[in-house]
Amino acid sequence: MAIVKVIELGKATVEVAFEGYSASLSEVSRQSGVDFGGAKVNGREINMDHVVYDGDRIFLGAKKIKGNTDSINVKIIQFGVSGGNTDVNVEPGTTIEAAARMLNVNISGVELRLNGAMTAVEPSTELYSDSRIILGKKVKGNIGVDIKFVQFGAAGGGVTNVTVEEGTTLSSAASTARVNLTGLEVRANGSQTVVSGDYRIKSTDSRFILAKKVKGNN
After folding, report:
1. What is the CATH architecture assignment of 145-211?
2. Which CATH superfamily does the domain covering 72-142 fall into?
3. DSSP 3-state assignment of 141?
4. Closest CA to 187 of 157, 213, 154, 155
5. Residue 189: exposed, middle, or buried by beta-carbon count in 10 A (0-12, 13-18, 19+)?
6. What tens digit of pLDDT does each residue of 8-44 get?
7. 190 pLDDT band (50/70/90 cuts)?
8. Most buried of 45, 68, 168, 217, CB within 10 angstroms?
C-alpha cells in the first residue's frame, strides 16, 4: 500500500491511500475520488498519467514551489480529544496564534510546546518549517505517537490521523479518531497478524490497516 499527501494552502493536508507501491495520478483519483486538477510535484506541472509513489507530496493551486517550502504544515495536538489532531498549510512566517485561528482552536490559557520541547513558547512565535504544537500543561514529555487508520476506498482518501499517548489502547485511539472498528480486522504496520482492541499503542507504531480480509495489503 502507499500514501500520498495532497497539500493546498489554507487547508488541511489530505492523505490518500491506494493499493500497490506506485500508480498513475488517474488511478489514484479513481480509487480515492480525489480531484487532482492543476496538480504540481516539485514545482512541475503534471498530468494524470504521472506516476506517484508512497510518500510523494502533491501540491494543488500553488503558483510557486521552491523546494516544497512555499507552504509549511502546522499541526495542533490535544491528546484524548476527539478531533484533537488538526493541521493546516500556511505560509512560512505565520504565527502559532494565526494558525490556531485558521483551525478554530482556542489556545487561551494553555501552554504551547513546539516540536516536543519542554519549554513553552508564546502564541506570537513565528513558524518557518513544518511544526507540531502541543496544547496542555503536562503531556508526559510532550511525545505522542502519530498513527494512521487506513481503509482503502473510503471517503476522503481513506486515511484518518490521530496522535495518542504511548500505551493507549487501539479501541481508545480509534474512538478518539472517530473510526469504527466493528466487523473489521486490524493489522499493525503492515504485519499479517490481526490485533485486537486491547492492543496498546507503541512508539514504533505508525499504520493500522482496516479491512474484512487483507491479502497482501502491506
Report:
1. Roll (3.10)
2. Beta-grasp domain (3.10.20.30)
3. helix
4. 213
5. middle
6. 777 778 888 888 888 888 888 888 888 887 787 755 6
7. confident
8. 168
